[in-house]
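Researcher: Let's do a round of design. I'm pasting the structure tokens now; please hold your answer until I've finished.
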């Protein structure tokens, strides 16, 4: 269970602006500045350098920050309401359902706008996540490993179905960018909807206490006067909204929602309201660092950031499994 081993008092973490948090913010700001000046195009030696700086570099860095916060928060909320540290959009099939939503949008609208793509991804993310929760309710064995296995099996089925639909209607090329999450195409006019993630952040912070109670289980939440089902639907809706936007604009970003919440919970416990600022800041830092690596590792070419995230996330996933085995 997610609360295991974190029974220590949380009073030490009530203060948000501690020295470590301020230091983390400074590090993320420095990474953001480094991101602004990382790239093949010489913005200081070209006549249109400053124009390119504001057309591509600034939007890309802003997209990195917003996306990092969105995926990290989604993982945190999902782990809380499922009471499992190995759960996040990648291990529940939510990402695959988003891709299926994009495919159906392209199927019915040959040249869909970004709003249509976002709508399809959000709706299918919500449907898929709710199906995942329905599966969980029927599973009696709720070990930490069984839950993500169910999610990944469900995601594999949806991914296979998406591939079949794409090949049948010759539409795979329309969503091929989704399969490889990258910020290479981000520029002015192609990322602005990511700012809606700020609304999701505010709503999660407002509902933090209720979501925390829902994480204690249906019986405990109900006894404390919380409508468990409504909170689960609300949490699922917020997750789907954030993941759908990121999927439509950026693509598939694996394991970010697994890495960051686990690192934060490892040192700070499981209080959502207290951990949310840390998760947002650390998520921004992790994805910005991975993106800088993806841009520099084989310059002048660029590796998709999803490749870096997938590699790091897989290692973290294995480490978490080994820690849980050792604790038992």
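Researcher: That's everything. Go ahead.
Model: Designed sequence:
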């Amino acid at each position: 269970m997610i609360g295991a081993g974190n029974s220590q008092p949380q009073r030490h973490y009530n203060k948000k602006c501690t020295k470590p948090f301020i230091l983390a913010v400074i590090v993320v700001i420095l990474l953001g500045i480094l991101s602004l000046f990382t790239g093949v195009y010489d913005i200081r030696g070209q006549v249109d350098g400053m124009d390119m700086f504001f057309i591509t570099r600034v939007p890309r860095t802003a997209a990195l920050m917003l996306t990092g916060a969105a995926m990290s928060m989604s993982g945190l909320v999902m782990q809380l309401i499922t009471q499992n540290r190995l759960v996040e959009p990648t291990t529940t099939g939510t990402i695959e359902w988003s891709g299926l939503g994009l495919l159906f949008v392209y199927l019915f609208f040959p040249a869909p706008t970004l709003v249509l793509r976002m709508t399809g991804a959000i709706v299918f993310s919500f449907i898929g996540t709710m199906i995942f929760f329905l599966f969980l309710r029927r599973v009696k064995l709720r070990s930490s490993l069984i839950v993500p296995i169910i999610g990944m099996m469900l995601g594999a089925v949806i991914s296979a179905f998406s591939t079949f639909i794409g090949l049948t209607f010759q539409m795979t090329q329309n969503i091929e960018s989704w399969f490889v999450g990258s910020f290479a195409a981000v520029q002015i006019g192609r990322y602005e909807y990511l700012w809606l993630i700020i609304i999701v952040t505010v709503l999660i912070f407002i509902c933090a206490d209720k979501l925390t109670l829902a994480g204690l289980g249906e019986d405990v939440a109900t006894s404390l006067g919380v409508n468990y089902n409504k909170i689960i639907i609300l949490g699922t809706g917020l997750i789907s909204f954030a993941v759908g936007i990121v999927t439509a604009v950026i693509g598939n970003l694996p394991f970010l929602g697994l890495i960051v919440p686990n690192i934060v919970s490892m040192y700070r416990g499981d209080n959502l309201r207290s951990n949310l600022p840390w998760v947002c800041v650390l998520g921004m830092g992790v994805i910005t660092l991975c993106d800088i690596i993806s841009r520099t590792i084989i310059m002048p070419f660029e590796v998709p950031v999803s490749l870096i995230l997938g590699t790091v996330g897989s290692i973290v996933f294995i480490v978490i499994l080994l820690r849980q085995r050792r604790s038992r």
